[in-house]
Write a structure and sequence with these properties.
about 100 residues, alpha+beta, Glutaredoxin
């Protein structure tokens, strides 16, 4: 979709190059969201970790760093802004 619009981007494979804690905190700030807002509750790691979704921000961030599949995706970042690409068309908001 981005290629069709002529938008250059860099894809980051989240399982091979996961966000570290600092990056995750920065992305959440750009999104204007709390960790629980981007927590994938249907991910197997959610159940395996015994999560409820009501854990502290610090705990959720630590778990998202350890288990990157817990983080909703895709997330597009451009400059000081970021959006969760659900639906994927939301990524185009970053190029307006």
């Amino acid at each position: 979709m981005l290629e069709e619009k002529g938008v250059e981007y860099r894809y980051r494979e989240y399982t091979k190059e996961p966000l570290d804690k600092s990056e995750l905190v920065q992305v959440l700030a750009k999104l204007g969201l709390k960790p629980k807002d981007v927590l994938r509750k249907k991910d197997p790691a959610f159940k395996d970790a015994g999560l409820t979704g009501n854990e502290s921000d610090a705990k959720l961030i630590a778990l998202m760093v350890e288990h990157p599949t817990l983080l909703e995706r895709p997330i597009g970042v451009r400059g000081k802004r970021a959006v969760v690409g659900r639906p994927p068309e939301r990524l185009l908001e970053l190029v307006k």
